[in-house]
Write a structure and sequence with these properties.
The protein is mostly helical and 215 residues long. It is built from 7 helices and no strands. It has a single domain, classed as Four Helix Bundle (Hemerythrin (Met), subunit A), CATH 1.20.120. It has helices spanning 2-45, 60-87, 94-99, 101-125, 153-168, 172-200, 202-210.
Length: 215
């Protein structure tokens, strides 16, 4: 009887543990959406056009990749929500999940650590935040705040967040998404570096020499 009670209690603990993990994962996605949409809306009310992605694409591959970026992000977010919602009822996999719970804990740390970096970047950017390369508006070179330590904190956040979700929900889709996103973001970084080099010249060279690309 005591053994049965112990197993039953442990099962309930594992269920609650995994449900809490799902709640935290969904909460991180909600926070990301709140920061992203909230800051975009605030800047829009100030007359700032934030979404400029695709306007600077020259090559066909760049235009295709940038045109599918937002729909792909929406699909990815929807699948995170569906996975979290569905997995809470899959009681037969709790034992397997518990065996790798440290991976999921690491994933949560990456997600929330990335969100702190994202928030810091939005604060440091101020009115200069853009989604994409803005060739039509002249803004200052941002080197304050978190940009003292990373030239690309928002891209760093995205790498951490996609990797974190892949650890929390290690399905083929999320693992492949993380693997594809990282080199894709790196290519975008190289494009932005070329643009900033041409625009700010020596000022950007000095900044580049003293600040790492990621961290």
């Amino acid at each position: 009887m005591e053994l049965f009670h112990f197993k039953h209690s442990r099962c309930r603990f594992l269920i609650l543990k995994y449900i809490m993990l799902n709640i935290l994962a969904l909460a991180s996605l909600f926070i990301f959406g709140l920061l992203f949409l909230g800051r975009s809306a605030a800047l829009r009310r100030q007359g700032v056009k934030v979404w400029v992605i695709g306007s600077s694409a020259k090559k066909l591959t760049e235009k295709i990749l940038e045109s599918i970026l937002f729909p792909a992000l929406i699909l990815w977010c929807a699948l995170v929500i569906l996975t979290a919602w569905h997995s809470t009822g899959e009681y037969f996999i709790f034992r397997i999940l518990w065996a790798n719970s440290w991976l999921r804990t690491t994933g949560l740390i990456l997600c929330y650590g990335g969100l702190l970096i994202f928030l810091s970047a939005l604060i440091s950017f101020g009115r200069a935040w853009r989604i994409g390369i803005d060739e039509n508006n002249s803004t200052e070179l941002i080197t304050r705040g978190i940009f003292k330590y990373s030239r690309n904190p928002i891209f760093l956040f995205m790498d951490l967040y996609f990797a974190g979700i892949a650890l929390i929900y290690p399905s083929l889709f999320f693992i492949v998404a993380a693997v594809l996103v990282m080199p894709g973001l790196h290519l975008q970084i190289l494009r932005e570096e070329k643009f900033l080099q041409n625009k700010f010249g020596r000022e950007y060279c000095a900044y580049k020499a003293g600040t790492k690309r990621y961290l």
